[in-house]
Amino acid sequence: MPVPPMFEPAPGARAAAVLILFGEGPDGPDVLLTERAATLSKHAGQPAFPGGRIDPGDAGPVAAALREAWEEAGVEPAGVDVICALPELYLSHSRHRVTPVAGWWREPSEVAPGHPGEVALVARVPIADLADPANRLTVRHPSGIKMGPAFRAGGMLVWGFTAAVLTQVLVAGGWDRPWDPSHVEDLPPDVLSLASRG
């Protein structure tokens, strides 16, 4: 997967990892997403892949992604087959360089928010819902600045970094369907308010 210029890693950024976890759910192939707690100071209320900073005790990004998925959503690491680690992506907003780790959920475990102060929701979102053109849109800041692709799926408005990665995942997986990027909506005020915290 190519790295867009806006996501090229920057020197001095803190290392982090996320788990893009695919499984076979009741509604077909799916991917695991979380919604961050509204009380957090960074990325509050935003849908995300399970993940976080790579700790000194982690044996690299794969170990960090699996640990975070266990802590945030209850994903048993032993039930995940790691497919690959994708190229690092830079999040300028939080100054992290993030390694997405793709995994197959060979033995799914029961999932739930691991810490209510960090995670508000855990959802297995069907790939078919993400690929459905009716669930896709472009979001913009009320100032008029377009902020990129978004999805309405799993009871969430998925936007930002997570939506950008999912867009590339759909293309790479052959699931992408034609949709109308000119369908533009402003970010809802509550989402914008949470995002403005930092």
From TrEMBL:
Pfam families xref list: NUDIX (PF00293)
InterPro entries registered for this protein in UniProt: CoAse, NUDIX_hydrolase-like_dom_sf, NUDIX_hydrolase_dom
Nudix hydrolase domain sequence ranges: 12-153
Family matches, as PROSITE patterns: NUDIX (PS51462)
Gene3D superfamilies in alphabetical order: Nucleoside Triphosphate Pyrophosphohydrolase
Cofactors, names only: Mn(2+); Mg(2+)
Manganese as UniProt keyword: yes
Keywords: Hydrolase, Magnesium, Manganese, Metal-binding
PANTHER family: MITOCHONDRIAL COENZYME A DIPHOSPHATASE NUDT8 (PTHR12992:SF11), NUDIX HYDROLASE (PTHR12992)
Name recorded for this polypeptide: CoA pyrophosphatase
